[in-house]
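Sample intake sheet
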Amino acid sequence: MTVIERAPAKINLGLDVMGKRTDGYHDLSMVMMSVDLCDYITAEDLDEDIIQFESDCPKMPIQNNDVYKVAQLIKKEFNIQRGVFLHLTKKIPVCAGMGGGSSDAAATIRALNTLWNLNLSYQDMIRIGMEIGSDVPYCIQAGCAHIRGKGEIVQPIVGHLSSWVVLAKPHFGISTRTVFPSIDCQEISRVDIESIVKALEEDDYQKLLRKMGNSLEDISIAKKPFIQKIKDKMMQSGADIAMMTGSGPSVFALCKTEKQANRVVNSVKGFCKEVYKVRTL
């Protein structure tokens, strides 16, 4: 049997850091949206009781990756006495703030749930996902959602954003682990997440543009000022808004028309090698 699952990238329409928890994590409030830049997970039964992994991405480690970790975790927890071959077709840039690794993990959970007839509930999949990473629970269903806590509280938003999205990934990456220790919860810029949710529910594009924001932008831009240059270039070329996604370093632009999006692509591809024109899902 073969199962193929799509793993879409995400952008953050809003990201607010609410405060630091007693367990050392930060409470977050975020609005995430899937876009049609996707990785693909293929899972196949193996006769031998082992996990085999391969990817078309040469930088991807064979075992120290989220796809392999999910398979190990599920195999052990449910005492699966069967082997699996997992192939990752990689399109989403790594260390980009687009949730590629988390989406791959979520797609693997869904694929193995089908392949191994586990009949996992949504809450079961969220629990497994949280053991891999805080963005994985959102990626189980993806789409447009309001995420809270460490990432485990996922509330789908009844509303839709139909927009072109231009994604630009600079030549460097930023590890989330280097950003959060720099957060001063008293000084960090705050984002009105509830207003973003309301704008989406009301299909009010202009209100959405006014309310969007990312509390981590100032920190990441201080580390890598080139992020601001990408934002400025996108706005100068006619984007409706340009904003960093996640902890960076990728920047995305929203454009209502494809003509706008094409102008933004042409303006940034000269100094960003990885530029993608996609749609919201």
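Comment: The mean pLDDT is 94. Residues 194 and 235 are 25 Å apart (CA to CA).
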